[in-house]
Design a protein that fits this description.
The structure holds two protein chains of two kinds. Chain A is mainly α. Helix content of chain A is about 75%, strand content about 0%. Chain A has four helices and no strands. In chain B, the strands form two sheets. In chain B, strands 3-2-6-1-7 form a five-stranded antiparallel sheet, sandwiched between helices. The radius of gyration of chain B is 15 Å and the shape is globular. Classes of the chains: A mainly alpha, B alpha+beta.
Chain lengths: ~130, ~190
């Protein structure tokens, strides 16, 4: 693929890559550990911060989607190991929450990218000449 | 405009080529792909979604809106209605998918001729015959000519449905549940 061109596209790409990473971790569920979770949480928190900044410039409907995704990211980013449950179950729960948050992030950023492209398309489309 | 598309091809290889082309159009900023997958209807009439690991594979290969639809088509992802849909889909030479009547997705028509196929498509989201494959995706497009040009060049038949409340209601209550984005997986495995 080509490199993302805008900050929005870069953020969307990051969210998609994050989703892929979490999916991989889930696929190796038997061997995934809390160290894996913590590594992904760092990326999740970074993405959440980026999205907070991006949200400010978006239209209301897009902004609402991004803010909802940020909330999910923050929740997933704060999960800590619960010693009362089996480690494997804890990791599984954390991965599921992170996967959902990455999904919502990718979804909302995809909507933002589409809105930005539509805005650009309208800006550069040929204007009708009124005689 | 946010739209569900299905582009049907006679060959599986061409469908995967089309999936890559779809994503390259996204890379070029010509349209935005929110999620996409390839489905194949085998010679026995069963619908399969290209993925490596059943439910997880589907989650990682498909998009948001199309997820529930594909789950209903292919069945084995735990959507109850999908089991019935998959069973029904194994009958007939062509099948309409994504019926908007009755609030459920499933087979609505079997068609043999192109005319019958078109009629079936009026009532369903799209039709796919034995041995055919389709790219199913959720996209945003400002000019339909972009997708039309790219997919027609590959010999695909394009079906569109607007992503609106009526369509999503027809797709069912599980529309957004559990289906996740990872659109850059070009895996062609059906195992």
């Amino acid at each position: 693929m080509t490199k993302p061109q805008t900050v929005l596209e870069t953020a969307r790409y990051d969210a998609q890559e994050l989703h892929k990473k979490i999916s991989t971790d889930i696929a190796k569920a038997e061997t995934a550990t809390w160290a894996d979770v913590k590594a992904v949480q760092a990326s999740i928190n970074a993405l959440g911060q980026t999205m907070k900044t991006l949200a400010a410039d978006q239209a209301d409907d897009v902004k609402a989607g991004i803010n909802a995704a940020v909330t999910k990211l923050e929740e997933a980013g704060k999960l800590v190991e619960d010693k009362a449950v089996a480690a494997k179950d804890g990791v599984k729960h954390a991965n599921a929450a992170m996967l959902e948050s990455a999904h919502k992030a990718a979804q909302s950023l995809s909507a933002a990218v589409a809105a930005a492209r539509t805005k650009l398309a309208h800006a550069i489309e040929p204007k009708k000449v009124i005689e | 405009m946010n739209t569900y598309i299905a582009v049907v091809f006679p060959s599986n290889d061409t469908a995967h080529q089309a999936l890559r082309r779809l994503w390259s159009l996204d890379d070029e900023g010509e349209l935005t792909v929110h999620g996409a997958a390839v489905v194949r209807r085998d010679d026995m009439g069963h619908i399969q979604v290209a993925d490596r690991q059943s439910e997880l594979g589907m989650r990682t290969a498909i998009g948001v809106g199309v997820g529930a639809l594909l789950g209903l088509i292919a069945g084995p992802v735990g959507v109850a209605a999908g089991v019935a849909g998959a069973a029904a889909l194994s009958v007939g030479a062509a099948t309409g998918i994504g019926a908007l009547a009755g609030g459920a997705i499933g087979a609505t028509a079997d068609a043999v001729t192109e005319t019958q196929r078109d009629n079936a498509a009026d009532e369903a989201f799209f039709t796919i015959r034995h041995g055919e494959s389709a790219v199913v995706a959720e996209i945003s497009e400002d000019r339909i000519s972009v997708l039309n040009g790219a997919m027609n060049a590959l010999g695909g038949t394009i079906y569109r449905r607007p992503n609106n409340a009526a369509t999503n209601a027809a797709f069912g209550a599980s529309y957004y549940n559990n289906y996740l984005d990872l659109p850059r997986d070009f895996s062609s495995s059906y195992d």
